[in-house]
Design brief:
The protein is α+β, with helices and mostly antiparallel strands and 567 residues long. Strands 12, 13, 14, 15, 16, 17, 18 and 21 form an eight-stranded mixed β-sheet that branches. Strands 3, 4, 5, 6, 7 and 8 form a six-stranded mixed β-sheet that branches. The chain starts with a helix and ends with a helix. The model is unreliable at 421-426 (pLDDT under 50).
């Protein structure tokens, strides 16, 4: 497919608001794509070059793209800046200046050039990027230039994600969404949406999704917990359960193969292997040649030997001085599940069987430690264990159905978390993970921070709906730090996936990338917030840099929390 034809599809997608119409346009695009290029077309339509765990990123900011466009079109750099200030979108600026009719480049050729540019590194890499990008733009027609300019900046955002691609793959073959369940399951085991599209194009949905198996080096979408109001209801819904401690750490999926590089992935599937250099020795503590483990990474205070909180542990994510941080903040990985051992998937095995395997393969020590589990069908035992773990300074407990398979996502009553110290009527029993949608500058002292209040939303399918505004609970330093992050995410127009009432619109919109953990007194019904609910007296707990927008709390979970207040 020519890049010009692909860009026409992107233009249709950009101008379409209907989710069903977007799905049908994508299905038509997939119909016209060849099996050799469909994976690249899928990635580019999502504004990426590869799934997040591949770590192929551009590191191209607005100022570099301004230089690229000035060089490509022989325009004074100040004029490009002026156009950018006026239009607020460098894609639109590229469209204005592009003159070429296009040289008939294929999508695959453009994709390969973008990957080459993204992989540029070392001394002089910035200048090489500018040179190669400008040469690429010289050959693009205006519409192609518009979209290609947005992709390296992470600002393509056409209002859909992997979930809509799954719907479109079903529509492409079946002309309906009947293949969604099988496609979703295959994607959760191997979350590479481009690879899945390629398999569907080559084999059809049935063969492409038949009996998917984990692959070392490709993260499995994590299994997530539901919420239930009290231990009696847990037993009623789940039967016999196992109770485990709930830690305030970093969810880390460890992939080990003897003689190969060890991989570590976050819950949102980013490769953070460099954050944990000590994992290179993890094989010394395993009785297995190949294994995939689900763990919680917890920093340890060297002096007191106590567990550190999430934010302290996350300081290891700094790009520089990792070894210094590793020495200063040693870490223990509390292992609570296993999904693969020595070539065999264990995802369809019941929980207790997976635990027995863990006891055989994990040689406990300071690096890896098997977390404790106690089986029970007695609600009082659950309450007692919860109180005990809270007293020990932990977040609470996890309650798991003993015969449950490992099922990615938050489905069914398989895992349940119990976090808060009180479950009293009328109180919110858990925090909410929301997406920052935009912000308002504020008055007085806050005006100097550039941020007075920020708008937070929750997920409803692919849409993000408002649930609260937050302007309290932050220190001056937090206000300034948050403002710096939001400045980098600011966009000229409201993202397509946002659903916001006019009276709640902020001064500035931001990309749906920053997740915040919010506490509140309770949840009330709201005629103004598009989620249908509002958080009363919301307070920022922390930024969740380990989560992405797709990990945010859903409207269904909010409804569930609202009902729990009444019990």
């Amino acid at each position: 497919m020519k890049i010009s034809e692909f860009s026409n599809y992107l233009q249709k997608l950009e101008s379409t608001a209907s989710r069903n119409e977007i799905t049908e346009i994508l299905a038509s695009l997939f119909e016209k794509s060849s099996k050799e290029e469909i994976d690249k077309i899928v990635y580019l339509s999502l504004g990426t070059l590869a799934p997040s765990f591949r770590n192929i990123i551009f590191n191209i900011a607005d100022q570099m793209m301004i230089r690229v466009l000035a060089k490509a079109y022989s325009v004074d750099i100040e004029k490009v800046k002026e156009q950018y200030r006026e239009k607020g979108d460098l894609g639109t600026v590229a469209y204005k200046y592009a003159k070429a009719k296009g040289d008939g480049q294929e999508v695959s050729s453009v994709y390969d050039k973008l990957v080459e540019i993204a992989k540029e590194g070392g001394e002089g890499s910035q200048e090489r990027r500018v040179e190669k990008m400008s040469n690429l733009f010289k050959s693009l027609d205006p519409l192609s230039a518009k979209f290609v300019a947005r992709i390296p900046l992470g600002k393509l955002r056409l209002g859909f994600s992997d979930l809509t691609i799954i719907d479109a793959l079903s529509w492409y073959e079946k002309k309906d969404k009947s293949g969604k369940k099988e496609l979703t399951h295959a994607y959760e085991v191997l979350p590479d949406i481009g690879l899945l599209a390629k398999k569907v194009k080559e084999l059809g949905i049935k063969k492409a999704t038949s009996n998917p198996k984990p692959v070392l080096g490709i993260p499995i979408a994590p299994m997530l917990a539901q919420r239930i109001g009290n231990p009696s209801e847990m037993i009623k819904k789940m039967g016999k359960v196992a109770v485990e401690p709930k830690f305030d750490g970093v969810r880390v999926q460890i992939h080990f193969k003897k003689g190969k590089k060890v991989h570590a992935f976050t819950r949102n599937l980013h490769d953070i292997s460099e954050m944990f250099p000590e994992l290179e020795k993890v094989g010394e503590h395993l009785n297995a040649n190949e294994i995939i483990l689900d763990t919680e990474g917890i920093g340890i205070d060297e002096k007191t030997k106590s567990l550190l909180d999430f934010q302290t542990t996350m300081t290891r994510r700094r790009k520089h001085e990792i070894n210094e941080f590793a020495n200063r903040i040693p870490i223990t990985f509390y292992v609570f599940d296993v999904m693969y051992v020595n070539g065999n998937s264990l995802m369809d095995k019941p929980y207790l069987e997976r635990r027995e395997i863990l006891k055989k393969v994990v040689l406990g020590n300071s690096l890896l430690r098997l977390d404790e589990e106690i089986a029970t069908d007695n609600p009082q035992v659950i309450s007692s264990l919860y109180a005990q773990k809270r007293k020990e300074g932990l977040e609470g407990i996890m309650v798991k159905k003993i015969d449950s398979e490992y099922v990615p996502g938050r489905t069914g009553w398989r895992w349940v978390k119990m976090k808060q110290t009180e479950l009293t009527q009328g109180k919110l029993t858990d925090t909410v993970d929301g997406v920052v949608m935009g912000y308002t500058v504020g008055l007085g002292k806050r005006a100097s921070f550039g941020l007075g209040q920020f708008l937070v939303g929750v997920k409803d399918g692919e849409q993000i709906k408002t649930i609260t505004k937050v302007g309290t609970g932050l220190t001056d330093i937090q206000f300034k730090s948050l403002n710096e992050k939001l400045q980098k995410l600011k966009v000229n127009q409201k993202p397509k996936e946002y659903e916001v009432a006019k009276i709640l619109e902020p001064d500035y919109w931001v990309e749906p990338q920053l997740v915040v953990e919010i506490a509140a007194d309770d949840i009330t019904k709201s005629p103004n917030h598009t989620a249908g609910y509002a958080l009363r007296f919301p307070r920022l707990v922390q930024l969740r840099e380990d989560k992405s927008a797709k990990d945010a709390t859903t409207t269904k979970e909010i409804e569930r929390l609202y009902k729990l207040q009444k019990k």
